[in-house]
Design goal:
It contains 14 helices and eight strands. The longest helix is centred in the middle third of the chain and has 18 residues. The radius of gyration is 18 Å and the shape is globular.
Length: 302
């Protein structure tokens, strides 16, 4: 089974097909990252503790996972996001959580909205729910897939019909299935779960305590904006958050339009106890990419 980063790189367009044009530069930047070890450790110790920080594995896909784990721990992160079973032993070795597990999905395009996928998905998720539970993890990602000729209402019914067949097993195992909200305007044309209202409607239809949404702030800024109001009004359904700046999907700094300190304060004020995972594409490589992650964590640590 291929890693999610491979499938995502093939389906999310330029942003994930070309994660870093300077892969060699990133490798060279590890020396700089190691040199900043003491600084990062101090920064990690100084984090406020109100936000559980994570980083998506694929955004540093050219860095050995063990090195990413060391860097993450030094910065005060508690987990690595979007990791599958092959990655979990490395995370455990470094004392990090797998904040959002993957590996059960077919692809971002072929998801629960199309009943033609249900038999395969049910088999895959039943197997993976056991793996996630046995490893001691909680969250497992899933996707609606594309619309095709399916209406949004029919897709809602199809998702509910398919997911309801595995949610009891997941609940018994202590695993939460989390569907990601993605934009269909820029990165994922035709993706069905592209608005928070549709995702919330699916949550309400399922009525399951172990089903929720991955509210990707970058994607929902593109689709609908009004991020803080949406978080405040619908946070009960949001099991996980992803960050990135817009436009460009780069680091959440002052060069983009989202006010991440305010957004993260809104998340904090809901009493959220899950993870906020950095999922941006660094605008630089090597040490610049490492610095971008460190700064992003500080920006979101409210």
């Amino acid at each position: 089974m291929t890693d999610l980063s491979d499938r995502i790189a093939a389906t999310r367009g330029l942003s994930r097909r070309h994660l870093f044009q300077g892969a060699a530069a990133l490798g060279a930047g590890l020396a700089g990252a190691q040199a900043a070890h003491a600084q990062d450790a101090a920064a990690g110790a100084a984090l406020k503790g109100n936000i559980n920080h994570s980083v998506a594995r694929w955004t540093f896909g050219d860095m050995p996972l063990a090195d990413l784990c060391v860097m993450a721990r030094d910065m005060g992160l508690k987990a690595i996001d979007l990791c599958g079973p092959d990655d979990w032993p490395v995370l455990k070795e470094h004392g990090l959580d797998s904040s959002m597990c993957n590996g059960a999905e077919i692809s971002l395009d072929a998801g629960w909205a199309d009943p033609a996928n249900h038999d395969d998905l049910i088999r895959r998720y039943r197997d993976h729910i056991g793996l996630v539970a046995d490893a001691g993890y909680r969250n497992l990602i899933c996707f609606s897939g594309n619309r095709g000729s399916i209406s949004d209402e029919q897709g809602l019914e199809n998702c509910a019909a398919g997911l309801s067949q595995i949610l009891p097993q997941a609940q018994e195992a202590g695993v939460t299935l989390v569907m990601e909200l993605l934009n269909s305007r820029v990165d994922h044309p035709d993706y069905m779960c592209d608005r928070s209202a549709w995702g919330v409607a699916l949550c309400e239809r399922l009525g399951a305590p172990n089903f929720g949404l991955l509210y990707d702030i970058y994607h929902m800024q593109i689709m609908e904006g009004d991020v803080i109001r949406t978080i405040t009004d619908h946070h009960d359904w949001f099991a996980h958050y992803h960050t990135a700046g817009n436009p460009g999907r780069h680091e959440p700094d002052d060069g983009q339009e989202l006010n991440y300190p305010a957004i993260c304060r809104a998340i904090r004020d809901t009493g959220f106890q899950g993870y906020v995972a950095q999922e941006f594409i660094p605008s630089g490589t090597g040490q610049q990419a490492v610095d971008a992650l460190r700064d992003a964590v500080r920006t979101c640590d409210v």
